């Protein structure tokens, strides 16, 4: 059964994706990387580029760049294939999970039912798509499928299976009703007729291992070293031998071959006409006008003049933790952990961390081409000198430790200053995890694998006088720790490899000499089946919310109660008339408190929940299926309490959500009502009133002064369903909103126009 999600997009008639914000809620935006260009097409002076997590187009004459992603219309991330037909204004986007997006002038259609060969259990990744007229051939790990773009449904499929072994179609194209596919055993072909699905009837045009193919006025295909022109059953190799061909493109009267960083151009008869290089590796290249444009791996689109064009964003999509500072600056760490939050998550890209300076994303040249293994679990700015950063390099190889860096605004680079090895007996020990500052701007870090045998965690404080980190082992059997949280003169530290939670009292001195610690365990009502604690947040009431790998626990009045051997509490909700523990047996990756004391809670594999202040009501539940989230395991959440913007961090990239809750206090902020006017024919939801006090008494009256609705809001915003006190929708007219804070010392008013 197909799942269709069709949104009216008249602007797509000319592929004006700049207006694609109308596809889904404007509350969402992406912070994706658009550096790695996988495929490109040109349409009337605009280059359309597909990248890992989205599509952007660059208008050559004006320099305008706009983008389309899961935040504003696409249905997935991890793009693996793309093609576009300028004549029909139709694009086809293939994803690593095997789904497709069809973009037409009428809208975007999501296709999830690609044919699967019986007995095939390997990757469903779309290797390649190629559009010819109203048909497209889709290459997958088990062969090819024909897709009807007009009907938006699949036709025949040919499963390349012989002797029970499936053979992938690396790429394929349609020429004169005939499909040509390059595979690891040769160039295969078959006419689109009744025997097309039978693999034994396919012809091997030329044996060999071939990876790339394209057709327009002619057909060209390639191995990693040799490119062929095909004509009437004859495959003629070009005289040039290449190093590592990544793409062949027939572009009008040109054959364009991408060979690592050099682009070669031939005419369609095979005569060499020139080459260029942009000084870095490219995936693909096309010709627009008289110039070559390269789709690079690290710099977006580059032209012959070595000028790059792309939407601004982080260097890569890999992301783990995020820090917001100085109102709108960001530091994003790109590492990760697996194996019980202990083993470093190896990343061949070696990304380090990314920095947004408030205007643009900056990536340090220190990480480019470095032979050091970087697994950055946290990066933080010095609150006194915000151009100085520290980051943790968590690995068991040379180069682990804490690093100090400095941002140079003149060169727009982040320079290396110093590495602190933490006095480890060997490189395996004392792996740094996360940072925090106390209220005196002293820097602290948690360390895993400490002690003589690496079986305990440790705490480190930065000594400004000696420019070193002082280290103290916890002395408990828990070799992994999480990022610490400083609150009310205590450090709150999850321990993910033991069913414990650590509260560390540093006695307001960074020397660590007189410190004490409190260890919570099963006896304090941590879940009995838990293998460790993963996250913690302290809310505006002073309650500690502790996330474990088997549920959620609350410690009311945490700082006051922690020293009294407290009992942690669970949240019990009613499900189908029966009491049930909230998030029982769920792995709580992250907890964040917003300005209205409501909670964002990330569940491993379950998306993110937005809960009321006491946790008993679910306000929203976002997953990758119903929102732009890249996946269902959000590794970090950050709330900008001044604006209400929420950052969701995943290994596949970052998206933001503009909530209605900014920082809330006892008085009113900037009270805003929207939508206003409320025209029933255009909007049938609730009216939102935001900018309210912590506790707001609301009365809504008609023009005659009659009260039609009253309520108390406690979260900084309120939603009115436009019903009166009898539950009936109010009549058309002007309504007055009269508001006071809890003690009546502050007042606010607003008007709402209703048109039924």
From TrEMBL:
InterPro entries: PorZ_N (IPR048954), Secre_tail (IPR026444), WD40/YVTN_repeat-like_dom_sf (IPR015943), WD40_repeat_dom_sf (IPR036322)
Keywords noted in UniProt: Signal
Residues spanning the signal sequence: 1-20
One Pfam family linked to the record: PorZ_N_b_propeller
Domain PorZ N-terminal beta-propeller, chain residue ranges per copy: 49-202
Name this protein carries in UniProt: T9SS type A sorting domain-containing protein
Naturally occurring in which organism (per UniProt): Chryseobacterium gilvum
């Amino acid at each position: 059964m197909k799942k269709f999600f069709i949104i009216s997009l008249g602007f797509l008639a000319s592929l004006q994706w700049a207006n694609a914000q109308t596809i889904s809620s404007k509350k969402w935006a992406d912070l994706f990387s658009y550096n790695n260009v996988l495929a490109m097409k040109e349409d009337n002076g605009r280059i359309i580029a597909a990248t890992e997590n989205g599509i952007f187009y660059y208008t050559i004459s004006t320099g305008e760049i706009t983008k389309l992603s899961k935040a504003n219309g696409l249905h997935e991330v991890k793009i693996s294939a793309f093609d576009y037909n300028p004549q029909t204004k139709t694009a086809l986007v293939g994803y690593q999970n095997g789904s497709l997006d069809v973009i037409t002038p009428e809208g975007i259609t999501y296709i999830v039912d690609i044919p699967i060969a019986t007995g095939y259990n390997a990757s469903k990744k779309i290797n390649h798509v190629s559009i010819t007229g109203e048909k497209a051939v889709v290459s997958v790990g088990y062969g090819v499928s024909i897709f009807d773009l007009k009907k938006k449904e699949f036709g025949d499929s040919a499963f390349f299976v012989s002797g029970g072994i499936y053979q992938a179609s690396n790429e394929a194209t349609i020429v004169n009703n005939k499909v040509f596919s390059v595979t690891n055993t040769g160039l295969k072909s078959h006419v689109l007729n009744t025997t097309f699905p039978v693999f034994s009837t396919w012809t091997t045009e030329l044996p060999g291992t071939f990876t790339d193919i394209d057709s327009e006025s002619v057909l060209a295909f390639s191995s990693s070293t040799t490119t062929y022109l095909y004509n009437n059953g004859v495959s003629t190799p070009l005289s040039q031998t290449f190093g590592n061909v990544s793409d062949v493109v027939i572009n009008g009267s040109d054959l364009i071959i991408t060979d690592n960083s050099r682009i070669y151009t031939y005419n369609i008869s095979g005569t060499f006409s020139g080459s260029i290089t942009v000084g870095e590796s490219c995936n693909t290249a096309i010709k627009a006008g008289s110039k070559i444009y390269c789709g690079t791996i690290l710099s977006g689109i580059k032209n012959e003049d070595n000028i790059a064009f792309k939407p601004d964003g982080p260097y890569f999509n890999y992301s783990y933790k995020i820090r917001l500072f100085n109102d709108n600056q960001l530091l994003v760490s790109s590492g990760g952990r697996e194996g019980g939050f202990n083993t470093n998550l190896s990343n061949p890209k070696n990304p380090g961390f990314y920095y947004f300076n408030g205007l643009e994303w900056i990536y340090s040249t220190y990480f480019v081409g470095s032979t050091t293994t970087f697994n950055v679990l946290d990066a933080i700015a010095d609150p006194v000198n915000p151009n100085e950063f520290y980051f943790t390099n968590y690995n068991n190889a040379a180069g682990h430790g804490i690093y100090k860096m400095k941002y140079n605004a003149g060169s727009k680079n982040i320079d290396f200053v110093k590495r602190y090895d933490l006095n480890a007996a060997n490189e395996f020990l004392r792996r740094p995890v996360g940072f925090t500052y106390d209220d005196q701007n002293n820097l602290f870090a948690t360390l895993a694998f400490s002690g003589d045998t690496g079986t305990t965690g440790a705490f480190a404080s930065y000594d400004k006088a000696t420019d070193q980190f002082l280290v103290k082992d916890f002395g408990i059997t828990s070799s992994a720790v999480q990022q610490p949280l400083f609150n009310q003169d205590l450090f709150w530290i999850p321990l993910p490899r033991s069913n414990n939670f650590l509260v560390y009292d540093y006695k307001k001195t960074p020397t660590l000499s007189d410190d004490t610690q409190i260890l919570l365990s099963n006896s304090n009502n941590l879940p009995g089946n838990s293998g460790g604690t993963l996250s913690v947040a302290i809310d505006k009431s002073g309650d500690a919310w502790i996330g474990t790998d088997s549920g959620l626990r609350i410690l009311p009045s945490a700082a006051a109660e922690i020293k009294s051997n407290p009992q942690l509490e669970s949240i019990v909700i009613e499900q189908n008339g029966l009491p049930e523990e909230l998030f029982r047996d769920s792995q709580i990756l992250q907890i964040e408190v917003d300005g209205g004391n409501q909670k964002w809670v990330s569940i491993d594999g379950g998306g993110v929940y937005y809960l009321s202040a006491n946790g008993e009501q679910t306000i929203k539940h976002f997953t990758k299926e119903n929102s732009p989230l890249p996946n269902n395991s959000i590794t970090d959440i950050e709330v900008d309490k001044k604006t209400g913007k929420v950052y969701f961090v995943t290994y596949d990239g970052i998206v933001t959500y503009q909530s209605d809750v900014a920082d809330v206090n006892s008085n009113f902020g900037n009270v805003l009502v929207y939508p206003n006017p409320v025209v029933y024919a255009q909007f049938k939801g609730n009216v939102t009133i935001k900018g309210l006090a912590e506790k707001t008494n609301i009365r809504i009256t008609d023009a005659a002064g009659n009260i039609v609705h009253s309520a108390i809001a406690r979260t900084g915003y309120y939603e009115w369903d436009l019903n009166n006190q009898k539950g009936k929708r109010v009549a058309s007219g002007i309504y007055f909103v009269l508001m006071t804070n809890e003690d009546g010392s502050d007042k606010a008013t607003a008007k709402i126009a209703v048109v039924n």
